């Protein structure tokens, strides 16, 4: 794991920094060729080794060149939250998901990803001069999960299975809580090295909690937020309604009518409570119930698809794999 440490106040990264042999992804090539001391990134940048097989790289930085970086990416489990900006990057054949800029709302839609890599691949990043990227990436060495207790716990078993599946990838819209933790990491205050490590580590663990809940099929982790008690009751009622209408085509418009609110109000409520849209939440809810049926009730893939309203098992399998990083057949057989 990397021993390369940068203060969160670092404002530049040079070609020589990227070439250091102790960085997490050893660079194989940089094109076009630059002088060793040429600056390639400008902004707030840090690499921190938190010990025990876990490290974090965070940045709010601008690329200073059109630069293609090819590096060696060793086996790992990584969790990232990209808040703003975009860059063309991939690990092996897998493109790294990037946030989207919402023109009508004039802001970026963050994206979170948990990614498993069981063997060494090439990491390729194509930077474009003047583009800014704001993100947090947490890297876990393969042995990190082995240190966890309760090896037979179903959620830990699901996470280990995901980690052992080469190029398994799961993306979701991070909750407001996770976005806040990422922002706090990027904006870390000036502290002594010991206190800074504790500060960052506490927030890293909060992000991992949400990522692992996604893999374990528990969906978004709900944290207390700016949602009134009355609205919490409405959300509970919506969950009950979805449970009773699993096999039916429930839409955001239908929920808004059923619960006596405008579509815009409903969307704002879900954004505040879960950090996601209503339609995405409905899809996630149904797929989680399908996974539960596959795991606990020994239903067939076709039966699970029908249970949650998919007319085509093939479409269900595609949505399921996109959601959980593995096929429903894999879950059923396991």
What is the element layout, followed by pairings?
Elements: E1 10-14, H1 15-19, E2 27-31, E3 39-51, E4 54-63, E5 68-73, E6 76-84, E7 88-91, E8 94-95, E9 100-102, E10 107-109, E11 111-117, E12 121-126, E13 132-140, H2 154-163, E14 169-172, H3 176-186, H4 193-215, H5 229-244, H6 252-258, H7 263-274, H8 278-296, H9 301-307, H10 313-324, H11 328-333
Helix pairs in contact: 3-4, 6-7, 8-9
Task: Note the main attributes of this structure.
11 helices, 334 residues, alpha+beta, 2 domains, 38% helix, disordered N terminus
How would you describe this protein?
With 334 residues, the chain is an alpha+beta fold. The protein folds into 2 domains: 10-215; 229-333, Arc Repressor Mutant, subunit A (Orthogonal Bundle). It contains 11 helices and 14 strands. The chain has helices at 15-19, 154-163, 176-186, 193-215, 229-244, 252-258, 263-274, 278-296, 301-307, 313-324, 328-333, and strands at 10-14, 27-31, 39-51, 54-63, 68-73, 76-84, 88-91, 94-95, 100-102, 107-109, 111-117, 121-126, 132-140, 169-172. Helix 3 runs antiparallel to helix 4 (193-215). The longest helix is centred in the middle third of the chain and has 23 residues, at 193-215. It comes from Polymorphum gilvum (strain LMG 25793 / CGMCC 1.9160 / SL003B-26A1). Residues 236-334 form the HTH araC/xylS-type domain.
Can you give me a brief rundown of this structure?
38% of the residues lie in helices and 26% in strands. The protein has helices spanning 15-19, 154-163, 176-186, 193-215, 229-244, 252-258, 263-274, 278-296, 301-307, 313-324, 328-333, and strands spanning 10-14, 27-31, 39-51, 54-63, 68-73, 76-84, 88-91, 94-95, 100-102, 107-109, 111-117, 121-126, 132-140, 169-172.
């Amino acid at each position: 794991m990397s021993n390369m440490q940068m203060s969160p106040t670092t404002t530049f990264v040079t070609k020589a920094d990227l070439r250091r042999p102790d960085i997490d992804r050893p660079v194989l090539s940089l094109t076009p060729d630059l002088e060793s001391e040429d600056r390639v990134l400008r902004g707030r940048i840090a690499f921190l080794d938190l010990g025990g097989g876990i490290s974090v790289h965070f940045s709010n930085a601008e690329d200073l060149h059109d630069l293609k970086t090819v590096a060696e990416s060793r086996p790992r489990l990584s969790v990232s939250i990209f808040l703003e900006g975009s860059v063309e990057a991939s690990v092996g054949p897998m493109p790294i998901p990037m946030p989207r800029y919402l023109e009508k709302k004039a802001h970026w839609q963050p994206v979170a990803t948990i990614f498993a890599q069981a063997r060494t691949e090439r990491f390729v990043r194509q930077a474009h001069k003047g583009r800014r990227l704001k993100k947090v990436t947490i890297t876990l060495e393969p042995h990190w999960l082995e240190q966890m207790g309760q090896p037979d716990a179903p959620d830990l078993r699901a996470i280990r299975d995901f980690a052992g599946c080469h190029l398994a990838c799961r993306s979701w819209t991070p909750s407001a809580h996770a976005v806040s933790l990422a922002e706090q990491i990027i904006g870390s205050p000036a502290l002594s090295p010991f206190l800074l490590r504790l500060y960052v580590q506490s927030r890293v663990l909060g992000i991992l909690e949400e990522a692992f809940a996604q893999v374990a099929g528990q969906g978004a982790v709900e944290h207390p937020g700016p949602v009134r008690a009355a609205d919490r009751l409405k959300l509970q009622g919506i969950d009950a309604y979805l449970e009773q209408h699993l096999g039916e085509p429930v839409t955001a418009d239908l929920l808004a009518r059923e619960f006596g609110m405008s579509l815009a109000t409903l969307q704002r409520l879900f954004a505040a409570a879960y950090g996601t849209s209503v339609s995405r939440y409905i899809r996630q809810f149904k797929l989680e119930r399908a996974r539960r049926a596959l795991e606990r009730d020994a239903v067939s893939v076709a039966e699970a698809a029908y249970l949650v309203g998919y007319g085509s098992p093939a479409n269900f399998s595609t949505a399921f794999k996109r959601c959980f990083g593995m096929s429903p057949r894999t879950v059923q057989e396991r």
